[in-house]
Amino acid sequence: MTYPIDEHSISQLNEYEGKKLVCITKEGLEIDEDEEAKKLREEEIRKYDYLCIYIKEILGDNVVLVSNRISVSPCVLILEINPHHSIIKTLKTKVEADKNDKIVKDLIWLLFETSLVHSGFSLEKPSLLASKIFKMIQLGLDNGN
After folding, report:
1. 5-37: per-residue pLDDT in tens?
2. Is the pTM of this model over 0.70?
3. Burial of 120 by CB count in 10 Å (0-12 exposed, 13-18 middle, 19+ buried)?
4. What is the DSSP letter of 121?
């Protein structure tokens, strides 16, 4: 939304042309799905369960779940992961191959902290995010040679 008043105005508007309006950014959004879509979603959740558990181990008390609400970003805060995004697919493969890989743990934190910044939140220690970004840049440069 462009102006601060936009969010307030939309939050007060419950219906438009006979259609109920709901905020898709809030937790607990229920999307109507047919039985086939529901089965596919449950299978997706089952496939990514191990990754979610692993991410929870790394991030501690932060919530991680597979989402069907995001389409372009790899994740958003709570931490809902997008199972269709190449970053999440690759991360899943790497965790399954070696869950003790320090780089994977750093990538999970980098993904989480980047999602915080992307969602407009402030970081307690922005310098830690910067150092992770620099580390990833260095890894990319090292792999390019």
Report:
1. 776 777 777 788 888 777 666 655 666 678 888
2. no
3. exposed
4. P
